[in-house]
Amino acid sequence: MKFHRSLFPYLAAVILLLLIAIFSPWLTPQDPYAQDLAQALMPPSADHLLGTDRYGRDILSRIIIGSQATLCASLLLLIFIALTGSLIGALCGLKGGRTDILLMRLADVFLAFPEMVFAIAVAGILGGGLIQAAIALALIGWPKYARLARGLVLTIRSTPYFAAARMSGTGKIGLLCHHVFPNIAGPILVTAALNVGTIIMELAGLSFLGLGAMPPTAEWGAMMNNGRSMLQTSPWVILAPGTAIFITVATFNLLGDKLRDIFDPRQQPRRQD
């Protein structure tokens, strides 16, 4: 239990980030979309704790409201990718045959491309936008979970208890629900937790390139894009959203590391006699 208690600080930090994103419309100190050119590019002060951007908008308010577009969109996208990829991989590993060969070769095709390059190409073809960026990342994200789930299912298929369940007449749905998914949930969860930071950076990266969230939507990557030309004159415009991305990604990575230690005993340090 001592090791599991070490998970609580990171889990509490993630819950805090999620609460900020969910209740962000009520947490912003000012209107994140209100423009005041007389207050443009003001440095951090008592009135604007993180300063203002080129349109006089409060950066702190935009970071808080931007957590919805960045964090919530990334988590929803990750849940979709993990569930879809895991289901495809589990069905392939359980059924085998031509379906397995066809879907795994398709996964190999997607895995053969560099992730970000493929995402940029797809998002560019679709015309840009947060939904289009999510579609592009979904296309490159599902093969990882499909491959992982398939490998885990192939291992489970060779176990005596699985053979006994199949011989007893349990159907494929029953095998998936009672013998497959409970045994692959741990590794899938750890992989998803470690992948949150990557999804956040990729989604923010597409927005930074102008292929994600479109103005005036407050999104951390788009905010960095708007402030990149002012790095030397008004560095707070780009450093504030960059710091928000860094803190969020680091928090989820630390949580993923702790989950990996819990679900994989081989990662735990050995006791010294």
TrEMBL record:
A GO biological process held by the record: transmembrane transport
Superkingdom: Bacteria
Subcellular location: Cell membrane
The keyword Transmembrane helix belongs to this UniProt entry's keyword annotation: yes
Keywords: Cell membrane, Membrane, Transmembrane, Transmembrane helix, Transport
Transmembrane segment boundaries: 7-27, 75-96, 117-141, 188-214, 234-256
Phosphoprotein is among the record's keywords: no
Gene Ontology, cellular component aspect: plasma membrane
Similarity comment: Belongs to the binding-protein-dependent transport system permease family.
Protein's name in the database: ABC transporter, permease protein
Species the sequence originates in: Mitsuokella multacida DSM 20544
